[in-house]
Structures are given as C-alpha cells and as structure tokens.
C-alpha cells in the first residue's frame, strides 16, 4: 500500500519540477523582449478652495518588443504622455512616441526614436486557441521592483465585442496570475513562449494582486495595432451624449470633449484647446473648458456604430492624406480647425 501512495507522489513531484524547468528556460528566452515604460503626464487637480492647478504625474508600465523599433503596451500606460522613456532588460533607455492607441481594448503601439540594437523580439500566438485551465505566465515590472514573472491559469473570457467598429472592440482573457501596478502593458505568454495577451487591469477590492486579472487578447492586438493602424491624435477625449450633451449645450446629439492634450501631438499642432477645470458630474471626474469636437471632414461625430465606422475610415486614410478639417465648439462658438 505504501508503494502505491509513494509512486504517485513521486510522479507529481517530477511533473511539477519539469514544469518549473520549462518555465525557467522560456523566461530566459523571452524576458529580454520585455521593457519598462516610464511616463510623465500633465493633469488637473482641484484644491478644497475650488482652484484648479496643473500638476505632473509620473507613470510606470510594461511592454514588449515586436521589432527593433516597435513596442506594444496598454493604452492607459501611454494616455497623453509629455515624456515617454523605455528601459530595456539590459538597463539601456531610449525615448519613444505613441503611434496608435485603442482605449476600449486598452492596447497601444509605440515607436522608439532610435532602433534598439541587438533587440530581442517576441511573436504573437493564437489567443483563440486558449482554453480555461491552460497555463500562462506574465512578465513585467510590478510596483517598479524590477523585471519579474508570475504564473497562473486562464480562468475565463470576458467582454468579447468584435465588429467593424474598432473603437469599441474588446476581448479580454481572465487569469489568476498575480498582476500589480506596473504590470500593465506587459505580455502574457503561453508555454510556447508566444504572446497571447497584453496585460490590462485587475478587479480587486484592495487594489493589490489578490483580485482577478485581465489581458487583452493577442489576436485583437495584432489586428488593431499591426494590421489596422490609425494615427494617434494625442488627446484624452470623453464622449458626450444624452443629458451630458444637453448640459454642454451641444448643437447636435453627441460630441467629444477634449480634456488633455500631449505637447507636440497632432491636436496640439492644430491648435485644439484642452481643458483647464476639473468638475464632477455624478461620479465622473471631467476636465472641462476645452474644445468639443463636432465633426471630422464633415463626418458628424455620433456614438452609433455607423458614424464611428466612418470616422475610423477617415482616420486610417490620414496615413496617405494627412490633411483634414475638424469642427469644434469653443466657448459657445463653432469654429473650424485645419491640420498642418
């Protein structure tokens, strides 16, 4: 009887040891492709005396190299950065700029100002092949303590919205792998060393890693960032519709409130006005005082799929034809701005 008990225990130990060895060898192979991303952003804060002030916030996230120039990360890591610096596994740092970003999917593509020499890159795997219970691992810079690994399993899938409208497309993979602040934008790997997800966020009562982690699927990231690029306008926007549109006296049913703008971005060069005052509507914090976008090249902004698909088509065409006009509401007046 003792032999019957001991043999399974030995087999279980051997399996766990083999898995640990496999994970270690994969980590050594792919970890040099993972980067730390440091940002500085201007933000508006309101003091108790209702005076608003611009402050600089430091940000930290992770990312991974898909070429010697391009890095994928989470959209919220590189929202409206004034500075964007990438630190590599070997300690080297290189400045970067945002190329394209999708807020709903929480994915972004950034480009180094100079290519990384002897870059280690990773490839996407097929996230459609993932199954609940499959082993995955995450590499990043949690809490800024340095590059580290956490492993877990695919726990489920959430928020699958896939259609022709790229602005609302989402597809998230749920995992129990430990995810902390700083992990955002880092890669989720399968045991073949392929990226199957881009770490996005956690749902946690404490704000720590003892919650549920989510990563945007690799298939959606590859489709939107590598095969379906649109330019980054360099602004934090908020969609106004319904009662909110009426509160702002919009001449149409919907509009895009410009809250923050990154310096030297496309919108900044066009002369788009950013917000300067923080308010709360319901439970939402908004920065008001900036322009409200009404249309792009005579395409009226609206929250319907048809309108957003037309705007997405307009944005993609800017790569070949960067000249366009934009109608905005500014201090009660409708004005037209032109790209330069």
UniProtKB/TrEMBL annotation:
GO BP term, pick one: proteolysis
Annotated keywords: Hydrolase, Protease, Signal
Signal peptide: 1-20
Pfam families: Trypsin_2
InterPro entries assigned to the protein according to its UniProt record, in alphabetical order: Chloro_Bact_Ser_Proteases, PDZ_sf, Peptidase_S1_PA, Peptidase_S1C
UniProt superkingdom: Bacteria
Gene Ontology molecular function: any one: serine-type endopeptidase activity
Protein name (Swiss-Prot/TrEMBL): Trypsin-like serine protease
Lineage: Bacteria, Pseudomonadati, Bacteroidota, Flavobacteriia, Flavobacteriales
